[in-house]
Amino acid sequence: MRSAADPAAQRVLAPGVSRREVWAWAMYDFANSSYTTVVITAIFNGYFVAVVAGGQAWASLAWTGALAVSHILLIIIGPIVGAYVDLRANKKRLLLVSTAGCVASTAALALAGPDTLMLTVIFLVLSSFFFGIGENLIAAFLPELAGGDSQGKLSGWGWSLGYVGGLLTLGICLLYIDWATAQGQRAQQFVPITMWITAAMFGIASVPTFVLLHERAQAQSPGVDSGIVRHSAQRLLQTLRRAHHYIDLRRFLISMVVYQAGIQTVIALAAIYAQQAMGFSMRETVLLIFVVNITAAIGAFAFGYIQDRIGHVATIAITLAGWIVMIALAWAARGPSLFWVAANIAGLCLGASQSAARAFVGVLSPPDRRGEFFGLWGLAGRLSAIVGPLTYGVVSWLSQGDHRLAMLITGSYFVVGLLLLAGVDAQRGKRAALHCVDLSSKPR
Predict the structure, then answer these.
(1) Residues 356, 362, 364, 369: is their CA dihedral positive or negative?
(2) Cβ(1)–Cβ(9) under 8 Å?
(3) Is the pLDDT of residue 225 over 60?
(4) How far is 1 from 263, CA to CA, in rounded Å?
(5) Quick check: pTM over 0.85?
(6) CB of 155 closer than 8 Å to CB of 358
């Protein structure tokens, strides 16, 4: 990243934004990726199915169901929180609260073991909920930091750094698992310690964000907090009623709900598929996730530059085509070699598609409603995180554990999402966002 004094850096960064502050913002992606990598993707999900749920036929459905509960809470509360922080200009304060909540509930997952299903589900729901609120809030800072048409680059920088953070935490956990295994320990002895490692990494790595990141938004509703939640909800309803002004945002969010259902399925169930369908051991699965995170970091970084050059819609379309290829290869794989190829294609597409979506929503958001619009972005993501993994869980349950069939059905989400994306006009959506700033300033 260049010095903020350099002309190139000034084009990438908004006026008054330093490269140190952008680094601090990106460090939150570094921090929170420890949670998604270790808890959701690589270690705890397989532990939940095998140990907490005892390997029962309904175990995968229980895992996806617990995550679905947290996503339902986020669908209800997330957009209201977004409207609230727009009114009070306090994204950073609520980000601190959500971070503390995720760190504490992740540490509490160390209590998980046999005969602790309900307790584990409670802490899983809480940790996922607080993570989602924080993800929405940190994303809402992006348009304040990027200059010109550089949101793709900045989003790519943050997302790629996030995969580095996930890799570092996963690497530490893998070293500990190897040591514990050599000592003869079982999973229910060493997996709880990895939850403490993850919580500590999240908390420590997020400190630069709270020290160096500035709140630039101006409060739109000064005064006491009486009735502020009601006011926030009314503001959100007002936006939804005026949704015809945001036709391309609406179309993109619908497309995103569909294709993200496939992405969220891969994130939540990749380790389970590797173990159940491909016969990978826990160590082999962790190594697979480790390597995939490297390709995901490369994809997020590279496609951030590609996105700002060829456009948001074209970039996302390329990644969806990649996802379709990945599903076909994973379904066809009968041995580890082809599955490794599919997994690394998934990594490239994972980093690129999620980073690109975050930047695109920033482009389509009016400046005075960024928290609210990123709350809607979070709503779309959480709705997809309910639909996709639950579909996989139900199909695998009804088919008596046919994970290949469940994966093949997952591919349909990418096909439909790509078709819906064709109706999105990025330039028209950007003009609508700027126009609606003027609309929002008129008396109602």
Answers:
(1) positive
(2) yes
(3) no
(4) 29
(5) no
(6) yes
Q: Which residue has the tokens 């980000």?
A: 95
Which amino acid, residue 30? F
Identify the pLDDT of residue 80: 82
| Token pair 């540490």: residue | 107
Do 317 and 371 meet the contact criterion of CB atoms below 8 Å apart? no
Of the segments 50-59, 173-182, 196-205, which one has the largest average pLDDT value? 196-205
pLDDT in tens, 307-344: 888 988 999 999 999 999 999 998 888 888 888 999 89
Domains of the chain: 18-213+236-438 (1.20.1250.20)
The rounded distance, in Å, linking the Cα atoms of 21 and 212 is: 6
Q: Which two tokens stand for residue 253?
A: 């969010």
Q: Tell me the C-alpha to C-alpha distance, in Å, between residue 356 and each of 109, 144, 166, 200, 253.
A: 32, 17, 19, 29, 13
Q: Which of 76-80, 159-163, 201-205, 365-369 has the lowest mean pLDDT?
A: 365-369
Cα 98 from Cα 226, distance rounded (Å)? 22
Both tokens assigned to 443: 């008396």
At a CB cut-off of 8 Å and minimum separation 6, what does 84 contact? 94, 228, 229, 232, 371
